[in-house]
DNA sequence: TTACGGTTGGCAGCTTGCTGCCAGCCGATG
DNA sequence: CATCGGCTGGCAGCAAGCTGCCAACCGTAA
């Protein structure tokens, strides 16, 4: 494929047939951005890819996988991500949508997938440095603002109630004012603040504010 | 230019000659991501572009311009950004590097610039939806995590001293412990914390923590 | 030398935050 | 019906945070 060329294929079969050779060797870095882990139409393909990648990671390959919170929606996906992360891949979660899967291999080959159904969607493959470079930069920028999977705490207790408390805290209100606004007693408000502090694993309110922001819990 | 094609040109003259027609009409949306505003080799070109874009914004065009903090490095750039923002363009600053300028027009045409010197660099232009879509999504993701120009406070008073205080606060230490560690009295530590709170325009420590994080002041 | 401005540190008084305690209320269960 | 668990709200006691006050110290300038 000449350097300035782009090929577009439909479906995974055609992708493998026309561009599979480009993905044969991953030597240095594998970058992937997607909504969730259901990339390929067959879940077994995902397992096969992961099992091939793990030895490579041990040999020095850098794998960066960027997903949206949808990738943590069910236990299967989460389990898979924790598994690849434990194997050494860097996994981050970003809050913005990633409707098009983007894969960049060794900054040499780039695969862009349409937003369609995994089994029937259009793939664009290119080796053009003029295209890969800028996309890689944008991937990098998104990566930098994403939260490492390990740092991302699951906070199921972010009820509407807790969210209102975060709002009040973020507005700098005293407990008394905030409690009155919420229509609860000061003791109850403080009890809930203490719950929130515990959930944020924070010893001070400054630290809690910092963490709430880091975790994207601010309203 | 066929849909799946990409053209690569070197220099602005060749860009205008071979692809200038693609940029003739901007009807709906103009998205741009770059390190700073020194996009073109001639500053007068920047002024001319801005002066053409302002009436369009008033007619409903959405202009989104995404830069790194380098775009605020000098008064001239800052002044320009404040000007276009005042004219209705949305300007955001993102903390990650954007070494390749990326321009997407009406989601129809995309221009990717190499990282070279403005007067002598390579441009890649494409109208391929398979390419524009994913890049647009990554632009969007980066945009979402960037800070609106208006919200970005300049905080020159982040001395090494204040940074150490932020560290102590972020670690959840009590004032007494932090003061002792810094080798100052509790009164002095608290005096400095109060200075920091004032600088962060915060009424509570939670709010201060939140803002410090938002402003990227955390160590 | 003295005078001045800025900073520090100790102290005191106050407010805000933290949490235990206990009574009361409510819903669910046997 | 009684019992239980969970939650609420008032109160008290304490810790942490906030700030004014004043003396002491330091560097600088006249």
Task: Give a brief description.
The structure is a homodimer of 219-residue chains. By secondary structure, chain A is α+β, with helices and mostly antiparallel strands. Chain A has 8 helices and 8 strands.
Largest interface comes to:
A-B, 58 and 58 residues
| Unreliably modeled segments of chain A | none
* H/E element sequence of chain A: EHEHEHEEEEHEHHHH
Strand order of the largest sheet of chain A: 1-7-6-5-2-3-4-8
**The CATH fourth-level homologous superfamily of the largest domain in chain A:** Endonuclease Chain A
Count of runs of 4 or more consecutive helical residues of chain A: 8
What is the strand content of chain A?
15-25%
Q: State the major sheet of chain A.
A: 8 strands, mixed
Annotate the secondary structure layout:
2 copies of one chain form a homodimer.
Chain A: E1 6-10, H1 11-19, E2 29-34, H2 43-58, E3 62-67, H3 75-86, E4 90-93, E5 102-105, E6 109-113, E7 122-126, H4 129-145, E8 147-148, H5 160-170, H6 175-182, H7 186-199, H8 205-214
Parallel strand pairs in A: 2-3, 3-4
Antiparallel strand pairs in A: 1-7, 2-5, 4-8, 5-6, 6-7
Chain A binds a DNA duplex (30 and 30 nucleotides) through helix 7.
């Amino acid at each position: 494929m000449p350097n300035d060329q782009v090929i577009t294929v439909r479906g995974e079969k055609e992708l493998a047939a026309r561009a599979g050779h480009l993905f044969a060797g991953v030597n240095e870095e594998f970058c992937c951005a997607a909504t969730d882990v259901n990339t390929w139409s067959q879940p077994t393909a995902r397992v096969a890819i992961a099992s091939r990648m793990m030895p490579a990671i041990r040999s020095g390959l850098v794998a960066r996988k960027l997903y949206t919170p949808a990738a943590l929606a069910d236990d299967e996906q989460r389990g898979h991500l924790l598994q690849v992360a434990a194997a050494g891949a860097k996994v981050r979660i970003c809050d913005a949508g990633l409707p098009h899967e983007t894969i960049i291999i060794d900054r040499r080959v780039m695969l862009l997938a349409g937003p369609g159904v995994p089994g029937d969607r259009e793939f664009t493959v290119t080796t053009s440095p003029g295209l890969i470079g800028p996309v890689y930069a944008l991937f990098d920028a998104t990566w930098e603002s994403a939260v490492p999977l390990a740092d991302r705490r699951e906070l199921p207790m972010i009820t509407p109630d807790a969210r209102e408390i975060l709002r009040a805290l973020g507005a700098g209100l005293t407990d008394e004012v905030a409690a009155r606004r919420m229509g609860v007693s000061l003791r109850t408000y403080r009890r809930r603040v203490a719950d929130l502090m515990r959930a944020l694993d924070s010893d001070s309110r400054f630290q809690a504010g910092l963490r709430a922001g880091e975790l994207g819990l601010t309203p």
